Every structure is written in structure tokens, then in C-alpha cells.
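Whiteboard transcription, Tuesday session. T.W. wrote the C-alpha cells on the left side:
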């Protein structure tokens, strides 16, 4: 069984940076996709960024493109989300997610993902 544990959230001023980490335990992400989603109060869970494990292809939501970078370290079974130039509208709980099957594509629907972390709060003050 895969367990995902996020860390790195916190409170930051607008324009600041944070780096989120997601460690996979149990078994590795293998050749599956890892993704980051976020959910603000009263809103749906939205795709933020994703990375294929085998080819390192990356995909981003338009709202974060150019500001956020997703990366992975296979040896450490860890995926990262570097967030720069943060805005108050980036405030949300951020979740790490993993597919249960091999894929060279990055699904953007949360329903495609089997494994989820517990979430980490990111708050950006204006």
C-alpha cells in the first residue's frame, strides 16, 4: 500500500516562496504519475501540476505556469512543488496524489488518482 506524506506548507507573504515535498512509502511511484492538487474553502479540488515518473514530463495549470515547478527524486521516492511569486489566491490545502497504474499522460481530474496525502496548508497573506 502506498502512503503519501506532504510537508512544507505554511504562512508566507505575497511574492514569497515555499517548497512542498511529498514522500511515498510502502512502494514507489513506479512508472506512475505524481500530481499536486489544491482545494480552497468552499471550492473544488483543482489540478496544480503533475509529473510522469519515467519521462519527467511536466504539466501545469495555467494559473501557476511560470511560477510553480514540479520535480521528483526517484531515489528518495519524493516529488516536490517549488512555488514562487505566491499570490493570495494560491491559498489552499495542497494535496499530493499518485496514480495506481503506469501512464505517460498526466490526468487532471482528481477522480483518476488512487493515492492521496493528508494535505498541507498554504496561506499567502497580502
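and on the right, the sequence the group agreed on:
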Amino acid at each position: 500500500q502506498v502512503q503519501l506524506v506532504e510537508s512544507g506548507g505554511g504562512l508566507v507573504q505575497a511574492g514569497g516562496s515555499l517548497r512542498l515535498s511529498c514522500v511515498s512509502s510502502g512502494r514507489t511511484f513506479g512508472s506512475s504519475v505524481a500530481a499536486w492538487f489544491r482545494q480552497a474553502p468552499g471550492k473544488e479540488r483543482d489540478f496544480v501540476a503533475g509529473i510522469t515518473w519515467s519521462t519527467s514530463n511536466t504539466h501545469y495549470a495555467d494559473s501557476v505556469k511560470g511560477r510553480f515547478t514540479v520535480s521528483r527524486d526517484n531515489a528518495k521516492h519524493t516529488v516536490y512543488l517549488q512555488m514562487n511569486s505566491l499570490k493570495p489566491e494560491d491559498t489552499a490545502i495542497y494535496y499530493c496524489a499518485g496514480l495506481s497504474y503506469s501512464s505517460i499522460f498526466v490526468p487532471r481530474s482528481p477522480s483518476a488518482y488512487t493515492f492521496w496525502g493528508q494535505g498541507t496548508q498554504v496561506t499567502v497573506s497580502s
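Someone added at the bottom: Residues 97 and 124 are 22 Å apart (CA to CA).
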